[in-house]
Amino acid sequence: MRSGLSRTEIQEKMRELVEALFTNIPSGVGSHRKDHKLNREEERRVLKKGAQWAVEKGFGSAEDLGHIEEQGCIEGADPDRVSEKAMDRGRAQLGTLGSGNHFVEVGYVEEVFDEGVARALDLWKDQVTIIVHTGSRGLGHQVCDDYIRVMMNAARKYQIELPDPQLCCAPISSPEGKEYLEAMACAANFAFTNRQMITHWVRETFEQVFRKGPKDLKLDLIYDVCHNIAKIEIHSVNGKNRKLCIHRKGATRAFPPNHSDIPSDYQSIGQPVLIPGDMGRCSYVLVGTERAMEETFGSTCHGAGRVMSRHQAIKAAKGRAVARELENKGIIVKGASRGTIVEEIPDAYKDVNDVVNVVHHAGISRKVVKLVPMGVIKG
Fold this sequence. Notes:
The structure is a single chain. This protein has 2 domains: 26-98 and 134-224, no CATH class; 100-132 and 225-379, tRNA-splicing ligase RtcB (Alpha-Beta Complex), CATH 3.90.1860. A hairpin with a 2-residue loop joins β4 and β5 (240-249). Helix content is 39%, strand content 20%. By secondary structure, the chain is α+β, with helices and mostly antiparallel strands.
């Protein structure tokens, strides 16, 4: 999200803002909202309608939907393919951040690489931005667990040889494959709804802390895009257009200018691409390219990627006051527990600058602006 605020306007209230975000957005393992627990029928509507459900309930506006991948709703979702256990896990978790590497980050534009594209995205130097990173919570995790068992049986049934015991699969056109895609679409729609609700609470929190209305704050959604999903798309293979199932895991879509699946106001520049780093360095906004369509099925990387496991990170941080270290760099961090912050130390990740330079120079996405964190809440 972008804002109408500059870095200097929020600096003095950064700690208050981080505390308020942490209060208003439930975070951490098993986090849930007492005020928004769904009944079964309402949850089914979320799984079918995605972010449109959230907008209908007053969380954001129709303008937001235009800036979400697939307008915030993957077609073909069938709640009957989602187990009761998954439904139970998701019911109280809508509108929550969760744990692990999920975060809400307030930062600012430190550097502009492409003035023309930045103008089209209404991004400018020292402007305050917000990144929300979370997904389908326990519901999506349970959908994955449930269908791993289905896929393992399907691989044996269809006599598919796999090179690793940790892999499983089913033919897309098989009953098992179709059912998984229908369940996965439900999880994706839950994730779109979850992020839309958190976006709404980010806006409310800024209004509360800065005592300004929406017209002054201008907290507009630039883009919301998936990074763990299988999508049916048309791509050129050996000069012929083919319908393919593109599975982006730890990858994100990077469609070029004039692609029919990106918002009308981004047609001239290409799809916004969001690549977060770690809470101590920076993140990037890029745009998709024609090269990505030719070489990577319209995809680029999603983030910096870990170089340490969570266990290794805990060992590396032993005896360190990580939150104090970050505060000394001008970054206020609030986590659901000290353990969360320790597991997510900046050293646990590759330097996102190196990663982004690779995809930029490879031509599969193009740098627009660099964002530096000022305040972060972690699950």
